[in-house]
Each structure stands twice: as C-alpha cells, then as structure tokens.
Amino acid sequence: VALRLMADPSDDADLGAWAGRVGASKRTLQRAFMSDTRISFSRWRQRARLLAAVERLSAGESVTRTALDVGYASVSAFVSSFRREFGKSPGRFIDG
Known about the structure:
With 96 residues, this protein is mostly helical. It is 72% helix and 0% strand. The radius of gyration is 14 Å and the shape is elongated.
C-alpha cells in the first residue's frame, strides 16, 4: 500500500478500499501502519503527499499543479497543510 501510494500520491482510496485491493482487513492495515510507522494511515498519506510535493516544487513545478497532482482538492487546502507541516508556505519553502 505504501509503495503504491508513493508512486501515485493522488490516489484517494480510503483504508477500506485499500484493504479490498490487497486482500487484507481494514483493521489489519490500520495495525500495520501504526506498527511500522508509528502514525495512522491518514497521517502517513498526508506526509507522503507533502514529500512528493517538495520533490515537484524543487523541480520547478507550480504550486497549483503540485497541489492537484499530489491529491489535494484545492490549492488552499494544500498550502494550509504544507504550512502546518513545514512552518512556511510552499513558495517560501522553495525560495528559502
């Protein structure tokens, strides 16, 4: 699941859908993410999206394109999440 999400961070499937895809129960996947990462699936996915965003922004992609490509529904949601995680906006992060 983690490898697939890193390959396509925009995939919005919830943990139940992932469980069906990989033939495990939702609870099994919840436990696996907590055991392996010490954070929940949703928190892990958010971090994976933000790390993918940093790569794209560093390569010169626009904030808008990056936000949509990594799975955020809006640019403002992306900027807010990015700022919470890194302490600055995506533009300032790349400039600094």
